[in-house]
Amino acid sequence: MSDSGAAKPINPPQTQDHQPGRETEMHPKPEYMPKFPGNGRLKDKVAIITGGDSGIGRACAVLFAREGAQVALVYLEETEDAAITADAVKREGKEALLLRGDVADKTFCDNAVGQVIENFGKLDVVVNNAAEQHPQKELTDISPEQLRETFETNLFGYFYLTQAALPYLEKGAAIVNTTSVTAYRGSPELVDYSATKGAIAAFTRSLSGQLAEKGIRVNGVAPGPIWTPLIPATFPAKKVAEFGSTQPLKRAGQPNEVATCHLFLACDESSYITGQVLHPNGGEIIGG
């Protein structure tokens, strides 16, 4: 009898040798375009999205633009991916401000928000999404350098950008943090990454309480296996080929299946929701 939960190849084997990875080199390409017409849910809003060049960030950028938002895209170095995302935003009739830099640098985050204010005059939505991950089979294999870099990108960057944005966020603004299914069930080969994602969940809950009286909502999205450039840039080819196959839905999710969660939490449809986390993970039951 076959094991229905066993990993099976569902994608072409592939790897990339540099994080956070490039969407232009993936096959098949991730699906990022919105599935439905816009309905003005972010009309006249301004959003900043980290990791906005590709993957979930790209899907959020295009969806937010379709729903009426001007978008600032923060990215590390993937200029070709960022340009493709900016063009997609412009095709939705909105402006895309490209901001290249490292979210682990507080000065960069301060300057990035300053450029958003200078260019658009305000800021309404913050999407903290940039991340890196580096598998290690043993805890002792995680070097101080890797530990520091993972926390600085995945957690410190969320703090820095949010700190920079807060003086400009008014009542009705929204902060949406991308955490991960690994925050809830762990990942033996991604101990440091999972730790940052758990910290992001706690950051989301704690900050939501701090900002509730100001009318600023803070929520999170915890994706499961999603087909983004970070996957071939992280795992060996065989694991990439099987990525997502053990989920109840038997496949990896697409970025445009996650961005809808970010949109919901960013717009007024979720006006009575704060301190919560949505779980687009292909059917994995988290938290009982």
Automatic annotation (TrEMBL):
Domain Ketoreductase residues, every copy: 45-226
Renumbered residue ranges of the record's region Disordered: 1-37
Basic and acidic residues: bias regions: 19-32
Recorded GO MF terms: oxidoreductase activity, acting on CH-OH group of donors
Pfam families: adh_short_C2
Keywords recorded for this protein, A-Z: Oxidoreductase
Domain of life: Bacteria
Database matches in PROSITE patterns: ADH_SHORT (PS00061)
CDD domains: SDR_c1
Entry similarity comment: Belongs to the short-chain dehydrogenases/reductases (SDR) family.
Protein's recorded name: SDR family oxidoreductase
Species of the source: Devosia sediminis
